Every structure is written in structure tokens, then in C-alpha cells.
Amino acid sequence: MRGWIHYLSGAAMATFFPVLLGDLKLGILIPIITAAFGYLPDFLDFKIKKWLFPRHVEIDPAPIDPKTKVAPMTVKIKDLDKYEDYQLIAIRGVVEDVEKISDDRIVFTVMDDTGKVRVEAVREDYLRLKKIYGEIKPGLKVFIPGYKIQAPGFEPYFVASDAPHPQLIASKIAEAIDRAYEENKMIVTKVHNIRLPGDVYRRFLIHYDTPSRSIKVYMGPIVTTGGIPIRGTDVPEYRKVGEAMTKHPFVKLYPRPTVIDAFSGPEIGYRRTKLPTGKEVVEEVFIPWHRGWSHSFTGGAIAAMILAGILFLIGYAHWFELSIAAMLGWWMHVIEDQLGFMGSVLFPPLQKKRVPGLMVGPNHYTAMNFATAWLMLSLIIWNINRFTPYITMMQTGVAAPKPIPLDDWLFLILLIWPSIIIYAYGVWDGIKFRRLYRKYWKYYALMELSEDMETVGSF
After folding, report:
1. 458 domain-assigned
2. pLDDT value for 259
3. Contact call for residues 110 and 99 (beta carbons, < 8 A)
4. What's the predicted TM-score (pTM) here?
């Protein structure tokens, strides 16, 4: 759920307590702290815990240029060996000579004031260079984005490209998975996104092919900050897919690729664990510093007790009601997040792993956000309406009539029916998705069985 929806949910919890509504009517704003409690779990994770969590592997497919603050970074030719193979970088220099040229391939040498490097461009990448520079000939000043490749014992060469090759990402993730298995500890991997000029991003997908023990990375189109693909920006087929095999088995909790495009790339943890069958595998933990104590019912109760002590010490008359409302605001955050995929560690320290989410509306996040926002606004309106007589009696001695003179439960149903319909559709969408989920695990189970049979029957 969006942060502002959690904030709204926390605020809604205060309206269930007439004494808190009464304080708000008098201009006493302390009860609004419940809204802050509704947002606090994400604040603790993204503003504090995130920076305290260790990172073991950094995957940066396109380093940011310190001057332009976008990729690709312009580097000197003598510094090419400082960058990893397949990272998107750029060189600037003068064409020294052309070694080979054909209809779909060119090999030429570029030099700057620090050295020279052989450059290769094929097919669409060669056509792109010709469209920009026309004929590639000695003396031509060029700016060429691409990536370097360096085989052991050979000089590096540079491949013209408008995107990093996905092989870098696939190889590093496979290495992180194997390291997690062999070292038997959580290996946290930061996968950076690819930010390009014009506030756009290159999308890529990470697919965990469990049965074949391979990591496949697909380089996609350029997208806007809203995730809308820009037409004509797909990469050529010959550098669209990168694949790396792992030495050890792994699982991904949800059978969907990890999509990385706008904003900051995620941290992904890998840890060795046991399946119910007893087999040891590496499990993916998406954003491992997220959804722990901060997103638990335990954490909400502890935070509410701390708040109660502070409110009592400062002499707030309704400290108990406000503490309970704040705890409910925290718990609403936990419940709302549990509707999605990732889940949370609900009752630490009794639990150590996340309880999988309910997968309500997995293909309709916007609709689920709308349904929740509508529900919370409806609860606020409903509570104000039904408690108006009590609040006015408490403050003036005269009970004012309800602004909308309907039976409370009838009024509530009239308010929340859009949310009910959207949630019902979300549940159906989740059921369809879980069918795919079961097929995925059945496929993996069959793979395990075939492996066992092969082991038993081998010599």
C-alpha cells in the first residue's frame, strides 16, 4: 500500500474513540499521532533500518556519471580495466583507423589522451552509429556508449551499445546464491537501476528459473518514471538476455520476475534454508531489512506501550485510548501490507520468517489502493456521524442529532460497498494467481523427484 494510505488508516483508528474525536473538535491535535503510527513502520525501515543493514554484493549495470547524475559514465580509455565487463559506460575520443567493415559490422580503433581501444559495433548498433556520424573514418570525433569485454590474457575491447549487457547481472546474482549456500549466511545484494538522460530508466527483469538452476536477466525498453515503455527503445535480440547457472538449488517465493526500472533498485537477500522435504536450498528474501519487527503486531504493541508512558507522563487525559488507537493504526499497516505478496514477520520473536501475504488483487495494485483509501475515508465519516450526539452531549450537555439520520450499520454499508466489490474482485484475482503458484511448486516438486530417481539409479 502507498504511504499516504497507511497514514489515512492510522488517522481512521482515532475516530473509533469518541473522547479522541472530542479532543480534535476542541482543537487538541494530539490524537492525530495515530496517523503517524500508521506510517511509522515504513519510516523505521526506509529511513533508519535500511542504512544499518549490511550489503555484501553491489550490482551496478550502469554507473552514474558524477557530473550529469545519469548513466552512462564517461571514462578514460586507460581506466577501462577498472570497470566490470558488460557495465554500460561511454568513451570519448578520435577514430584512429578502421580495421574491418561490412554491411552489418565494423571494427575500428578509438584513441584519447590516455590510450586507445578497439571498438566493435554490429547490426542495429552499427546502424545507430552510422545514423549519428555517417561514415566512420579516421579523424572523426566520437562519443560511444557501450561496455568493455576482456578475456583473460587479452587486451579489452569495447562494444558499442545503448544498454548494459544483462550477463553481468545474471552472473553476479548466481554467484550471490552460491555464496549464500556455501557460507550458510544471508548474502544481501543491492541491484542498482539504470537511470538515463531525460529522467527515464532502462527496465530489466530478473527471472529465477528454479528447475534448471539458472538466472535469466532480460534487458527491456526505456520507461518513464510512471513505468510506461517508450516505443522503439527495445534492445536488439543478440544482447537482450543474460543467463548464468548456479551450483546449488534455489527457490523464489513467488513465480514472477523481479522488475527493476524507475527509482532506486532493490536489495535482495539470499539465505540457505530447508524445504518441508528436508532438502536445503537458497531462498530469495526480497528487501531483507523490510517487514520485520517494524511490521509486526508485536512491534505495534511495544510502540503503543512506549507511547502510553510518554502520554501519561505529560498528563494527557486520554492517554489510554490514544495508545490503543495508535496501536490499531500500526496494526492496520501490518494488515494492509499482508494483503500483498511479501508478507511480514507478524509475531516476533515467536516467528523469524515472513508469513506469506494473502495475494489479494496481485494484478490490480491501483484498485486495491483505491479500495483501502475509500474504506478508511468511509470509516472516518461513519464514526463522526454516529458519535456526534455523544460528543456534543459530553461537551455542551445537549445531544445534537446525527448529521445523517440513518441506522449506523445501514449507513456503513452504503459507504463501503465500492470497497467490498473491489476487494471481492481482488480475492478472485488472488485465487487465479495462486493456481499458477501451485503449478510452479508442482513443477519444482517433480524436478526434485526426477533428481532423486537419477541419484538412486546412477552408478
Report:
1. no
2. 92
3. no
4. 0.84
